[in-house]
């Protein structure tokens, strides 16, 4: 993750220096808040007394620079919190819980097309340096134990959105993003995020 963060910072600094003399674009900050959905199966499927949730609160924060053209294009870097998935099974003897939570650094590019003065559509794609924390916990009258393991890997992300420009600086819209992230040392899965997105340009 340190190498990925170093590359992201270097690119951001290089971008800032290259556009310092340009007047045909703008810096932006973009925030998303919504819900994630993990593309995973219930590990306790078929067993009585189980509950399973693969949705959770999620969000992302990005910053970057975008050049103005017929279709505006830019670069972005940021951080995403992709929620969690939780499975539980309970009986007269206690409860067992399995949970996975993913977050990570983002680095990519984006496109923005203004349909007219107010309405826009956009798209983005790039790399996600994800870290997934997997935790299992058993709780009963005789035994209480937990085990945690983390795995990190680089995957990709894609997203589309659209919304309304209130003025040249502020917009608000809806977005869908999909991320490929690790669930174990040998298994990847996809996480979808539906969100409200706000952007400020300066």
Can you tell me the overall shape? Answer: elongated
Mean pLDDT across the residues is 88
Number of domain modules: 1
Largest pleated sheet: 8 strands, antiparallel, barrel
Radius of gyration, CA atoms, in whole angstroms: 20 Å
What percent of residues adopt helix (DSSP H or I)? under 10%
> Which structural class should the secondary elements be placed in?
mainly beta
The number of helices is 1
Order of helices and strands: HEEEEEEEEE
- First-last Cα distance: 30 Å
CATH class: Mainly Beta
Q: Based on DSSP secondary structure assignment, what is the total number of beta strands?
A: 9
CATH fold category name: Porin
Percentage of residues in strands: over 45%
Placed side by side, the strands forming the largest sheet appear as: 1-3-4-5-6-7-8-9
Taking pLDDT < 50 over at least 5 consecutive residues as the criterion, the unreliable ranges are 16-22
**Which architecture name does CATH use?**
Beta Barrel
Please, could you describe this protein's structure?
There is one protein chain. This protein has an eight-stranded antiparallel beta barrel with strand order 1-3-4-5-6-7-8-9. It has a single domain (2-201), classed as Beta Barrel (Porin), CATH 2.40.160. Helix content is 8%, strand content 71%. The protein starts with a helix and ends with a strand. Residues 16-22 have low confidence and may be disordered. The protein contains one helix and nine strands. It has one helix at residues 2-18; strands spanning 25-38, 50-53, 55-67, 72-91, 94-114, 119-140, 144-165, 170-182, 188-201. β6 and β7 (144-165) form a beta hairpin. With 202 residues, the chain is mainly β. The chain is elongated.
